[in-house]
């Protein structure tokens, strides 16, 4: 539609948002890539071009590989479980179960809590000697275990926190999708003699596929973006066993003040996100329409 | 829409089992929170001892309140979320209107640039954004916490979808009446998008009330710290590991959102649903 208004109008409307987007999303992304080829300026020494030196450093950095592996395990461990739980929760609170409202609230409440508050509560939970988990194991006569102090259990313990926090959030999207499914489908399936189980796998689950893809993308981004619980609960320890990529970037950038190395690590994170974006545009956008 | 009941034509035999399973998971889900509430409202010696005769006490909250400048943190968070929400609404409305109702060269490119923020959020580019704040001499201010989030791709996207559903006739009628672009936007589009503004508002406020990493990096004084960072500073300084007080502070920090959620549960859930369907 061509308006009588000046052709500048849309640009003026866009201007403030675009300036801020360029300033805090696009410029820093490009600057990160640029700075990854320079050394960190220190005192009187300005940054000098070092080419791929920082990248070579990263390849030889065992902590980087540890952190990247952790992050991949973290994503693999949290996403399928929280999606499965979310679907189950959504099916339950969509059904006529007794106390549906209370259940929905129970599942969703962790979403509203700040991750940092959640982390504090769970920290208390996992505390050796007198935490709740310890009380339970003691009552069952099991040996005491330092969940966050042991490299073998720390990442798993952090995954449980993330699943607890996120499953209820994903449930909401499934609940919305379930309510779009016409009840006549369930009636028809019931008349045909299908079991609840068959109805879920043959009808509901396929119809929930677009939601699953949407949730999957969000969950993937979140698993590389959310590190609040790590700052509070473990600081990446013990021995980097629970450190994730963004936490390592934070540590390198703001504890070691090595901005070049932090830039290289950020480039890796950007590559991961670009990969997610690619998957999103190839698969997801065939189903949703932006126009 | 949330109360639309799904009929259950599959018989009742599995119903009981499902209800039991659902309730077990539900209880498991609230257990951490209930435990925190128990600890916060009882004297420290009952933190790990469950007894029905344990006296209730608000002392932990009083102690926490006096042990750190929480009133200031509350004020900072309040200012922060208000500032971000106001900026996001104004900027997103303008941008969404441009995308929804104008055809101009480069609009697709601009929209792609906006959508990129859905993937690359400012919280990832912490080092560069920190440098920018330094350059602008904004470090350690509430403005610096909010500024990177003022332009919200999510808000622009959500409002653009909504504005596109507004009938053209309304818009054209307003133009014929001599309304300017901004007047049309204000009189026609904004009122029709009220539910979307509410949904976006709830999502935005809860997101930024809870945001932590970026504020942690960019602030270092009581004057600018939001609640989340204040809580972290409070619980990481050695309080003689008094869990009761830390738990009280933790609950206090999330209390306004938690209370709002308990009171407006339906609206909250619906707004997340509305904001999620895209």
From TrEMBL, chain A:
One of its GO terms (biological process) is transmembrane transport. It is found in: Cell membrane. This is Sugar ABC transporter permease. The chain crosses the membrane at residues 72-93, 105-125, 154-178, 199-221, 260-279. Coiled coil: none annotated. Residues 68-277 form the ABC transmembrane type-1 domain. Keywords: Cell membrane, Membrane, Transmembrane, Transmembrane helix, Transport. GO terms for cellular component: plasma membrane. PANTHER family: ABC TRANSPORTER PERMEASE PROTEIN, INNER MEMBRANE ABC TRANSPORTER PERMEASE PROTEIN YCJO. Belongs to the binding-protein-dependent transport system permease family. The keyword Cell membrane applies. Pfam families: BPD_transp_1 (PF00528). InterPro entries: ABC_transporter_permease, MetI-like, MetI-like_sf. It is a multi-pass membrane protein.
UniProtKB/TrEMBL annotation, chain B:
Gene3D superfamilies: MetI-like. One of its GO terms (cellular component) is plasma membrane. It is a multi-pass membrane protein. It is found in: Cell membrane. PROSITE patterns: ABC_TM1. CDD domains: TM_PBP2. Residues 74-264 form the ABC transmembrane type-1 domain. GO terms for biological process: transmembrane transport. The chain crosses the membrane at residues 20-41, 73-97, 109-130, 142-159, 196-217, 243-264. Keywords: Cell membrane, Membrane, Transmembrane, Transmembrane helix, Transport. It holds the Pfam family BPD_transp_1. PANTHER family: ABC TRANSPORTER PERMEASE PROTEIN MG189-RELATED-RELATED, LACTOSE TRANSPORT SYSTEM PERMEASE PROTEIN LACG. Belongs to the binding-protein-dependent transport system permease family. This is Carbohydrate ABC transporter permease.
């Amino acid at each position: 539609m061509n308006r009588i208004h000046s052709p500048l109008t849309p640009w003026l409307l866009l201007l403030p948002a675009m300036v801020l987007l360029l300033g805090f999303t696009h410029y820093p992304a490009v600057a990160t890539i640029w700075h990854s080829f320079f050394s960190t300026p220190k005192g009187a020494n300005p940054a000098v071009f070092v080419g791929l030196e920082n990248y070579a450093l990263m390849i030889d950095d065992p902590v980087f590989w540890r952190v990247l592996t952790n992050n991949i395990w973290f994503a693999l461990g949290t996403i399928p479980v929280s999606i499965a739980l979310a679907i189950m929760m959504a099916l339950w609170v969509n059904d006529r179960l007794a106390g549906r409202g209370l259940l929905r609230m129970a599942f969703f409440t962790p979403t509203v809590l700040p991750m940092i508050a959640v982390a504090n509560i769970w920290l208390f939970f996992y505390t050796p000697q007198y935490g709740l988990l310890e009380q339970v194991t003691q009552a069952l006569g099991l040996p005491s275990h330092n969940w966050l102090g042991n490299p073998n259990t720390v990442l798993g313990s952090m995954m449980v926190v993330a699943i607890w926090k996120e499953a209820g959030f994903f449930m909401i999207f499934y609940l919305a999708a379930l309510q779009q499914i016409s009840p006549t489908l369930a009636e028809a399936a019931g008349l045909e003699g299908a079991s609840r189980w068959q109805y879920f796998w043959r009808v509901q689950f396929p119809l929930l596929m677009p939601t699953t893809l949407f949730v999957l993308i969000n969950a993937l981004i979140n698993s590389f973006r959310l590190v609040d619980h790590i700052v509070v609960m473990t600081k990446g320890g013990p021995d980097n066993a629970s450190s994730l990529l963004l936490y390592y970037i934070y540590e390198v950038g703001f504890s070691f003040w090595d901005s070049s190395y932090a830039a290289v690590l950020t480039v890796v994170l950007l590559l991961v996100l670009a990969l997610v974006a690619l998957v999103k545009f190839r698969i997801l956008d065939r189903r949703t329409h932006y126009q | 829409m949330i109360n639309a009941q799904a009929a259950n034509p599959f018989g009742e035999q599995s119903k009981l089992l499902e209800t039991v399973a659902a309730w077990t998971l539900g209880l498991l889900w609230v257990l951490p929170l209930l435990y925190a509430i128990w600890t916060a409202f009882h004297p420290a010696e009952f933190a790990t001892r469950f007894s029905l005769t344990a006296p209730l006490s608000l002392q932990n909250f009083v102690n926490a309140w006096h042990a750190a400048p929480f009133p200031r943190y509350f004020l900072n968070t309040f200012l922060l979320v208000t500032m971000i929400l106001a900026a996001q609404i104004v900027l997103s409305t303008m941008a969404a209107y441009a995308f929804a109702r104008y055809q101009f060269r480069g609009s697709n490119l601009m929209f792609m640039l906006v959508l990129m923020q859905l993937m690359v959020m400012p919280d990832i580019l912490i080092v560069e954004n920190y440098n920018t704040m330094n350059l602008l001499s904004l470090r350690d201010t509430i403005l610096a916490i909010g500024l990177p989030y003022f332009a919200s791709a999510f808000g622009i996207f959500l409002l653009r979808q909504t504005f596109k559903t507004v009938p053209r006739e309304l818009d054209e009628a307003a133009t014929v009446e001599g309304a300017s672009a901004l007047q049309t936007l204000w009189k026609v589009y904004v009122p029709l998008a009220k539910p979307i503004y509410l949904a976006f508002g709830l999502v935005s406020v809860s997101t930024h009330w809870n945001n932590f990493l970026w504020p942690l990096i960019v602030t270092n004084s009581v004057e600018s710290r939001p609640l989340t960072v204040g809580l972290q500073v409070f619980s990481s300084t050695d309080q003689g590991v008094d869990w009761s007080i830390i738990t009280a502070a933790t609950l206090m920090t999330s209390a306004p959102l938690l209370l709002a959620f308990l009171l407006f549960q339906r609206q909250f859930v619906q707004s997340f649903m509305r904001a999620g369907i895209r």
